[in-house]
Each structure stands twice: as C-alpha cells, then as structure tokens.
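Intended use. Records like the one below are meant for learning the mapping from a protein sequence to its folded structure. Do not use them to infer anything beyond what is encoded.
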Amino acid sequence: MAEFATIARPYAKALFGLAQEKNQIESWLGGLEKLAAVVQEGKVASLIDRPETNASEKADILIDLVGLKDKELKNFVIVLAGQKRLSILPEVYAQYQDLTLSFNHIKSAVIYSAYPLTDKQVGELAQMLNKRFDSELKISVEIEPELIGGIKVEVGDQVLDLSVQGKLSALYTTMTN
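Structure written out for the chain above:
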C-alpha cells in the first residue's frame, strides 16, 4: 500500500487545494468517501481492472453509481480513469481526509483495545490523549484481542503502547539482551 500512498499523494493534495479555492472541502470529502467505498466493492473493482472497458465508460459508471453532481469531482474521476488510477481512490480519500483534519487543526487517533470500550472510557481516554498530544483528536477505536489487555494508541507516527503484549515484548527484549 506504500506505493498507492505515493501515487495518491499528489492527487489528494491537488484536489484539496482546489477544494479550498472553491470552499468545498467538507462536501468533497463526502463524495470521495462514497467513491472510495464503491471502488472497493468486488464487481466495481473487477470493472476497473477490465482492459476492454475504456476510461470514459469506467468514469461514467462510477459517477453514476455514486451520483456525483459536482463538476470538479466528476472531472477528477475522469482524470483518474484516463490515467488508469481509479484503484487509488481509497488512498486518495484517506489522504484527503488527513489534509482536512490537519486544516481544521485536528489529528486522527486510533485506539487499539483488547476488549470493547464503553463510551465513558473512550471519553476519558479522549480527554487524556488531547492533553498528552496537545491537540484535538478525532478518535476511532479498533478491537485487537492479540493485545491481551490494555490499549495501544496511534496518533500520526507516534505510538503509545500500554498493552500487555507491548509490556511482554519489552520484558522479552530486556531478558534476551
């Protein structure tokens, strides 16, 4: 996926810049989200990979499936189709979303937990993490039973590992060195 990230970055930045000019950042985020979801569906993915279907047909099908009304977003899909890059739409969406959060001075955080967290626990964690990372955070929670217990938090390239698995790994490293 690192290759997709590298390819998608200039597209996401260009689209975000245009969205800023047109004052359409949030509305285009929704359109990109729909496009990213549709492209990941099996039948649509196979259509995109089909060499006998020309680029304009692929773009038209995607535009119709999502129901895009915005001229610039339609043009964006047509450009991606013409360059055989429709498959990077999910990564373009992810990077555009990161740019939107950054623009709004919000960081994205993922809390990995061995067990489901209650809303109260997530709220308390959010308060602590906002202070620790000195930023407003948009938090999502994912369940990872292999953590055994505790949590692991990722904010950008920073990782805060308070899991049992992390502590056992640290102990193992200490004992073997």
